[in-house]
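User: Predict the complex.
Assistant: Input components as received:
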Amino acid sequence: MIKMEQINKIYRPQSNPVHALQDINLHIAAGDFAAIMGPSGSGKSTLMNILGCLDTPSSGQYWLGGVQISSMNSDDLAVIRNKKIGFVFQNFNLLPRMTALHNVELPMLYAGIDKEERNRRALDCISRVGMLERMHHRPSELSGGQCQRIAIARALVNTPDIILADEPTGNLDTATSLEIMNIFQSLHREGRTIVLVTHEPDIAAYARRVLHFRDGRLVDEVINPHPAGISDPVEGGETE
Ligand SMILES: Nc1ncnc2c1ncn2[C@@H]1O[C@H](COP(=O)(O)OP(=O)(O)O)[C@@H](O)[C@H]1O
Ligand SMILES: [Mg+2]
């Protein structure tokens, strides 16, 4: 699904250059759930911006679903972004004047999907995150956790290949964070590919792989044999 080879990103190459990513080699298979950890300034957001086709690398190769991204122009990147990627942000990035429902419909408007289909898919995704009862509210009338549920519904409406989340629980209390992580966990179990940045080991524990960044380098990877989350009813094991 994702393949990066020798990716480098240098900001301000002319004056005062910042080498934000150095020789990143990364492979993420379809259906995987990866967490990115590392101190502030280690390049996590830079990596997410490149993965999400919001920015391009200074050098190196990036393939997304078999398509070479690294040499694309910004128009092509915008098309890929809308079709293949669902974003979830720390600050939710919902439009304040629109209802939750209209926020969720917006990416489909850009994709030129007709009204009936937009409504059908929006309701489907809003139901998926348990927000049908509040879908006519505006973001200011919702809690942080409810806003993030709506933002996740919005990320799902164009059935993206991959969901990218940059500190999605950064503004939420612990209990709400775990609810949001259970939604990501169930999306992962449905076969979606998820890459999520977090500072918190408790949040990274939901992922199958944890990638550690330091000073722009991928320095370590830990595989999680028993990711946290909704317990599997067949095993009947621990609950969160
Ligand atoms: N647009 C930019 N211009 C210049 N430097 C930047 C820019 N964005 C990030 N940086 C620098 O690149 C490095 C990595 O930043 P970032 O990817 O945001 O790290 P993280 O998300 O891990 O905190 C930092 O030194 C940061 O100051
Ligand atoms: Mg960051």
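The CA atoms of residues 90 and 199 lie 12 Å apart.
Let me know if you want any component modeled separately.
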